[in-house]
């Protein structure tokens, strides 16, 4: 599995994955669910995520974030991962620094665990030292992914569990 920034060359693979999420009526966590609906084309999306990472053209209450996509050895897009570069009141309670999802047909194979592990390495490169990750209390799969990557339970606020990870240990 490779985690990297999306490019124009990835268009077909990413559109294929987006189509699968839409057909399965599965929300695209990891930045795409919220940004994809703001654009008309893939090229517009690439431009928008580049702007967002620089803190430009952000909707109200949004934060700068780096967008990543995971791919298998054949170039098939497997999932999305977004790293917020800061927190605000909203993301401190729900959302945290990282959002992620694996395409519906590939779930249950441990890919989320590896995707997050790779994402933590990227977060460290981006200068983050302590990372907050949240998940709904009934999302057992996400909870297992967080715990497998060293997440330390903090608390639960309105049905959202909060976990901290120390990136200095990576």
Automatic annotation (TrEMBL):
Stored PROSITE patterns: GNAT
InterPro entries named in the record: Acyl_CoA_acyltransferase, GNAT_dom
Xref: Pfam families: Acetyltransf_3 (PF13302)
Organism: Streptococcus oricebi
Organism classification: Bacteria, Bacillati, Bacillota, Bacilli, Lactobacillales
Descriptive protein name: GNAT family N-acetyltransferase
Coiled-coil features, chain-numbered ranges: none
Domain N-acetyltransferase: start-end pairs: 1-168
């Amino acid at each position: 599995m490779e985690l990297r920034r999306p490019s124009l060359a990835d268009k077909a693979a990413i559109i294929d994955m987006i189509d699968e999420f839409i057909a399965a009526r599965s929300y695209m966590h990891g930045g795409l669910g919220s940004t994809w609906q703001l654009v008309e084309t893939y090229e517009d999306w690439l431009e928008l995520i580049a702007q967002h990472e620089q803190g430009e053209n952000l909707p109200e209450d949004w934060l700068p974030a780096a967008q990543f996509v995971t791919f298998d050895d054949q170039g098939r897009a497997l999932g999305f991962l977004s790293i917020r570069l800061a927190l605000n009141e909203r993301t401190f309670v729900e959302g945290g620094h990282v959002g992620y999802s694996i395409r519906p047909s590939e779930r249950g194979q441990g890919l989320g665990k590896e995707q997050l592990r790779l994402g933590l390495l990227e977060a460290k490169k981006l200068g983050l030292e302590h990372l907050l990750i949240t998940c709904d209390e009934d999302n057992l799969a996400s909870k297992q992914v967080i715990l497998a990557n060293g997440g330390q339970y903090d608390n639960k606020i309105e049905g959202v569990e909060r976990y901290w990870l120390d990136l200095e240990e990576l």
